[in-house]
Design goal:
This protein is α/β, with parallel strands linked by helices. Helices cover 26% and strands 29% of the residues. The chain contains four helices and nine strands, in the order E-H-E-H-E-E-E-H-E-E-E-E-H. The protein has helices at 12-30, 45-54, 105-115, 174-179, and strands at 5-10, 35-41, 59-67, 80-81, 93-101, 121-129, 142-146, 152-153, 169-172. The longest helix is centred in the first third of the chain and has 19 residues, at 12-30. The radius of gyration is 16 Å and the shape is globular. It starts with a strand and ends with a helix.
Length: 180
């Protein structure tokens, strides 16, 4: 698998430092209020797990499954929400956690769906932000890293279901992307 990689963009040490910083910022913002942390599956699971381990505020966890990429390197224009929340969000402070804010379409769709259920608040936290690719004006409240417009894998992000377990973020060799 490592032979498929072109270059490492974010080391595991750099990721660990930034996740800890994000947790401090989020703790400070919520000031001991309980939150419902909603992870967008599948890509955000690694980031969300590390973030949760570093938060000190009370929280409950739920997940929502959204399909944005399929087996492609381009996000679908209309993301599909494949499962709904198990938790009640009415008058709860909701924190949506995703792996990457690319076009903005996925997070905007989930944000609108959750907001329609009358929560006390909805905030967003993304591991990676690709502002060059934005197709709308959606902006995350917290962002781990801003990256250039390159397709990346690792730390939960995949290409056709592979590479999620890498402890860092990397680009793939063009020959790997062309094979699919």
């Amino acid at each position: 698998m490592k032979n498929d990689l072109h270059k490492i963009l974010l080391s595991s040490q750099k990721i660990d430092r930034r996740v800890k910083e994000l947790a401090v910022e989020i703790d400070r913002y919520y000031k001991d209020r309980e939150i419902l942390l909603v992870t967008l599956l599948d890509g955000a699971i690694v980031f969300a797990a590390d973030l949760i381990r570093n938060l000190t505020i009370p929280l409950r966890l739920d997940c929502i499954r959204v399909s944005s990429y399929g087996n492609s390197t381009d996000p679908e224009t209309a993301p599909r929400i494949l499962s709904s929340l198990k938790s009640e969000v009415l008058q709860k402070h909701v924190l949506l956690v995703d792996d990457i804010l690319d076009t903005g379409n996925t997070m905007k769709s989930v944000y609108e769906e959750v907001s329609a259920k009358d929560p006390a608040s909805v905030q967003t936290c993304v591991f990676l932000d690709k502002p060059e690719r934005r197709q709308n004006n959606f902006k995350a409240d917290w962002s781990g890293f801003s990256i250039p417009d390159e397709f990346v894998v690792g730390y939960g992000l995949d290409y056709a279901g592979r590479y999620r377990q890498l402890p860092f973020v990397a680009t793939l060799k063009s020959s790997i992307l062309e094979d699919k």
